[in-house]
TrEMBL record:
Catalytic EC class: transferase
Limits of the Adenylate kinase active site lid domain: 120-155
UniProt family annotation: Belongs to the adenylate kinase family.
Record note on domains: Consists of three domains, a large central CORE domain and two small peripheral domains, NMPbind and LID, which undergo movements during catalysis. The LID domain closes over the site of phosphoryl transfer upon ATP binding. Assembling and dissambling the active center during each catalytic cycle provides an effective means to prevent ATP hydrolysis. Some bacteria have evolved a zinc-coordinating structure that stabilizes the LID domain.
Originating organism: Halorubrum ezzemoulense DSM 17463
GO process annotations (BP): AMP salvage
Protein name per the record: Adenylate kinase
Residues the record lists as binding Zn(2+): C123, C126, C143, C146
Residues that coordinate or bind ATP: G12, A13, G14, K15, G16, T17, R120, A192
A GO CC term attached to the entry: cytoplasm
Region described as LID: 119-156
One of the record's GO molecular function terms: zinc ion binding
Amino acid sequence: MSHRILLLGAPGAGKGTQSAKLADAYGVEHVTTGDALRANKDMETEYGTPRSFMEAGELVPDPVVNEIVEAAIGDADGFVLDGYPRNLDQAEYLSEITDLDAVILLDVDEEVLVDRLTGRRVCDDCGANYHVDFQPPEEPGVCDECGGELIQREDDTEETARERLDVFYDNTEPVIDHFRDEGVLVEVDGEATPDEVFARIRDVVES
Ligand code: AP5
């Protein structure tokens, strides 16, 4: 069975955490526009660099992101897509380049989202994700996996996190409504431990 899984959710809902687990479990590509853009923050495009949009919590222009997704999905047999589509135009583009086997929304309350975002720390070397309270490293400030330094993402300040949530409500909720209207959206309660949330998602994918 092919696994072409789309994981939707607000900033901080746990898309990155769960997508990595799913990609591992099913041996498929983890396609994440956020990571791809962070790796190419200073790339010159006709709209400016991705950095200028990301640091303001705004969406990077569609043509830049569409190209990244099309190249990453390519002819892949399976993938977990995280961070895309974020508006209806991107959703339309996605439907032109691939079919999906599962569309899952991670539901998390807004104040929990803000706590998760402002407490997140990421490894500067390997990109592993931590949280100062919910998923602390064994030694504060040091990555368990590679010993790298843990840093706060530039867009994880409370002000930018709230801006990103506003962008999500304005642009991405219509995408969620679109999949809900099509009858393909499955909502999963994202407020539990990462392992419990993963078990819930797995049940959906395998049912
Ligand atoms: P992106 O990197 O995609 O950020 P996001 O959607 O805002 O999502 P996050 O990475 O912040 O959160 P997440 O849901 O992955 O949660 P995570 O698992 O890390 O995008 C960043 C920027 O890039 C955008 O603002 C935009 O500028 C640009 N961009 C990206 N895609 C784009 C697109 N398609 N179009 C245009 N622009 C685009 O978890 C968060 C924290 O919570 C972590 O600390 C984690 O440890 C913790 N946590 C996770 N799960 C749990 C749990 N179950 N319990 C307790 N803590 C948990």
